[in-house]
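User: Hey, my collaborator sent me this sequence without any context and asked if I could get a structure. I don't really work with proteins. Can you help?
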Amino acid sequence: MTTSAGADAEPTYEITPFTVDVAQADLDDLRGRLTDTRWPDELPDAGWTHGVPLGYLRELAEYWRTAYDWRVHEARLNSFPQFTTRIDGQNIHFLHVRSPEPDALPLILTHGWPGSIVEFFDVIGPLTDPRRHGGDPAQAFHLVIPSIPGYGLSGPTREAGWNVRRIAAAWAELMRRLRYARYGAQGGDWGSAISRELGVMDAQHVVGVHLNNVIALPSGDPAELAVLTDDEKSRLASLDHYMNELSGYMRIQSTRPQTLAYALTDSPVGQLAWIVEKFKEWTDSEGFPEDSVDRDRMLTNVMVYWLTGTAGSSARLYREAALSFGKPEPSTVPTGVAVFPRDITRPVRRFVERDNTVVHWQEYDRGGHFAAMEVPDLLVSDVRRFFDRLRRRPGS
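Assistant: No problem. I've predicted the 3D structure and written it out in structure-token form, which is a compact way to encode the shape of the chain:
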């Protein structure tokens, strides 16, 4: 992926303006690969039970090849101020969108897998400039939206060890460099784990953590399971379904990410299928991913992985997390949770409250895992509501 920056070299602490400028040769190469795709067979009437259906993917790939216009979405990305800096030896790319409201609260938003900064396009305006979007200007945020190390424009990683804790430490350093001494954090998927860890390690600066995806496991105490309500049992059943039926990608990425990388880096249709399957299974959709997520936005998200060749380095986060897995350190930072019905799982509140200081919990009747893309209106309102109580917290 060809890019342009404000300087040829960047000192360790320099923050450099950045612009995305993909070479036409890269787009031509993609179109040629899509034209020459070698397609597999499939069982009759299998639907989505064996993975992405052949007919659906062929049509989507043809749309990608002939109708999707990267330049339109590249321009949208470049409409937001972008920067790069080096932290702990790693290039970090981020959007930094300041609010016109002088008293706005800084907020760092973190995506997950298979997402990217593209997830947040529809929430940037309402969060930074509520006055122009029918909201209260007192609820404005200055937004920092980084690409996770190894993902997209922050990739690839060049050494092992980039686990959740190390990423959170990088985020704390990023906010320090931007001179934000008091800020909030928000995220889903890996962004949830990173935001929570950021609150643990930088509690003196993080005023609150808002999460729209939380996986909380039972403690193993039989007495805890004996008192579960029917609704809580249903929530645990959704977790079992995820682990038994939907987590194959996680097992591969947490054990052999390098082997997977060859296929996804060489084949755009392979990369497309690997990501689009999640937009079907994890969203509030009935037939196709586009029921919940705009087709072009979904393809732009895929393009971020394809053009940067970061299928493998993004998958490495799963292996790093598996190697560093352990009991979470309790978080004392005020925590808000938004639960969307078609997320991977719906958490049991009492399990979440074991290790987190939950002061806000809201359940919704629509939306799924990619809340910022699926239901930006609900996510924006929930983030505003949660941080309202924390903006002028006594002693802060």
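In plain terms: The beta strands are 3-5, 16-20, 82-87, 90-97, 105-110, 141-146, 183-187, 206-211, 334-339, 357-363. You can pass these tokens on to your collaborator as they are.
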